[in-house]
Design a protein that fits this description.
Length: about 475
Amino acid sequence: MQTIPLVGRGDFSEWRDAARALAAAGVSPREVDWRAGGPDEQLFTAVPPDLPKPDPASQPITVPPAFLPLAEAVVCHTEPGRFHLLYRLLWRLQSDRRLLELTADKDVAWARLLAKNVHRDGHKMTAFVRFKEIAGETEGRRRFFAWFEPSHFVVARTAPFFRRRFADMDWIIATPKGTASWDGESLIFDTRPGENPGHGDPTDALWRTYYASIFNPARLKLKAMQAEMPKKYWRNLPEADLIPGMIANAEEEVRAMAARAASDPPPFHHRLQDAARTAAQALPANADPFDALREEARRCTRCPLHCTATQTVFGEGPRDAHVMMVGEQPGDQEDLAGRPFVGPAGQVFDAVLKEAGITREKLYLTNAVKHFKYVPRGKRRIHQKPGREEIEHCRWWLSKEVELVRPRLIVALGATAVYALSGERRPLSQLRGRPLAMQGDTILYPTVHPSYLLRLPDEAERRRHHALFVEDMKTIRHLAETLAVAG
Ligand code: URA
């Protein structure tokens, strides 16, 4: 019997080299005792196996192409019999090239099952790793740490995904099954168990805001959610402690949502009557021009959107603000409240402003279009992008706001605002972060809309784009400070 000691923590080459030598020497699977390291520290400095010399008379060892990806996944499983199983398959493949096509074969079926578990575990890792920023930068690169607990040895095979996604930052992903790190040049993998420092960070709070705002109780599928995110992943997620409460409240929330929808906007004729009543209390001729403009906008009928919206959502903020930020149009909650950026996108926006050190109360906040555009679906009102005509009709109000507030810097949040303010129709990806000169000495700074972050399906991407948005806001803050100093 030949004993083959392996570290056995997902490194395919150590098994491959040994298996190739054993098969070339004609050692049958029954004669090999594969021993993987397990948690025993001394085995990480693995004794190289004492391998037999190849039999010069034997045929070269070859495998069909499908074997390699299968074996590369299977070695990452924690099943102790995996090396033996793979060697048996390798041995049998020498005389039966089509073995892997026999899906009912016991060895083939078992190997496929193990590979499936490994693929699934890698997928979980891409979905549930949460980076936390570590203080201090190295050569201008921000540094992040993540702790994750995979079921199998998937860190090395999954790490390239994170290198592609997060190439522009330094990161370490530590797990009990090894650690991967990236410094912009090398992706390094260490098979020793990593340690969890267990620290939270300020972005946890924001992450919880996102999670709470995108959670839709009406769409809650508890079984699917638990299958996708088994409890063992929850404890490392900053949003984990929100989940039980949200699940418990889901039914009540759905009922409340239905009840809220029942208080839909008043029908058009009621608002006309309302407007007529307030017109009777019209402002005096010497009223402040801004108050007069706001009052006039309340009764706007320039485009058909006023027919279905509850009310005009006009801009708010200091009349002498240095910075004006312009969104797209009010959403459902803004329409009911009559104020810009108070719904889910507003919460994201507030969090980003705070992280960038910008005080919302010092900004003038408004939208390109002042009425909520939606289509009713059941009892819900589904947001619709405003069309070109609606933007053009509403531009009249926006240009009046710009004229009265006279900001030095205007931030366009999203493509609709860019178009409304400049007529520019190039994709936002070409315009973002590139200041444009407007009339007078005003500068226009295009960036994304906060709701863009809420729409990203992938959590890791959302975190990344959140960080980019914060960077944009910091640039805006510096730009505003420079313009203020320049007078
Ligand atoms: N989206 C916007 O563009 N503006 C708001 O006020 C709210 C959401």
